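Lecture notes, unit on binding sites. The following record was shown on slide 14. It pairs a sequence with zinc ion.
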Amino acid sequence: MFTELKKIVMPIGVSGDESGVSAVIAAEIAPYVDKVYNDALGNLIAFKKGKGKKPKKLMFAAHMDEIGFMASFIDEKGFIRVSRLGGINYTAAAFTEVIFKNGTKGVLVPEARITQRDYRPENYYVDIGAKSRKDAMRRVKIGDTCHVAPNLFKLSGSRVAGRPIDDRIGCMMLVEAAKAVKEYENDTYFVFTVQEEVGVRGAKTSAFSITPDYAVAVDIGGAGDMPSCAPLAVNLGDGIAIKLKDAMVICNPVMVGMMKEIAADRGVPYQLEILEGGGTDTCMLQQAAGGCIAGALSVPTRYGHSAVEVIDMNDVAGGIRILAGLCETKLN
Ligand SMILES: [Zn+2]
């Protein structure tokens, strides 16, 4: 699974410009579904017909986009100011290597006079090594996007680290679930959404057009087992987390119950997640059109939105089995 994940982690796909990663995922999932297409906003939708006369519509969503930056101003010395795309952790983003879509590399740094306590978006700039504005503009134009360099490497045992694991891990889980399903009971839509990091926008339009009966978002979640972190009953390696609530959603008890049951039947360990903050595509799936029965799976993750997000691949494997189980369960 590490190799499969790395393939999906490496392409750039900051919010609003996900075409690169979309092409990679489309090629991966196409052999396992009936149809693959992009909608007007850029969401990638892979459809597999269910058996029987009037199968229910089941939708999965994982977001393809990653947090990043857009060049907004280039000063006379060639230093580039950037506008943020998504919830940037500026402490984690300080002194990192960034890469523009055309391959130009730079370093993202705070102004020298700024102390760590005062890290703010407006105090950051990208240094691509240019000698002047003219020199910089040969390689970077206003509106060009960049991201913190992608990376994926193995830690001890089944743990891996890197970025953007949020939410390429969810994308990989959808692809792997599509490969694993034996027989589809429901009309199933694997949706790789855009612009989640800037306000769950892709989930809104895709769910509105699909109008699913049941929906599950897969994204990273929290972990509560690091030194002096906030209390959270989720540990890395103790199983995939079935979400109960976060700041933007209360998951439907029917979906929560169904996922628990599939996990129990198939011997998949799971945990229950309650996050005080944050939100995922789930909130939009739940509210699309007339609403649907929605839930979410969260991959327990340490250090989200940093260059060293850490997960346990055993949790991921369990999550894939629950997703495949939902596809094989006749929904009414
Ligand atoms: Zn995410």
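Take-home: The chain has two domains: 2-66+164-327, 68-148.
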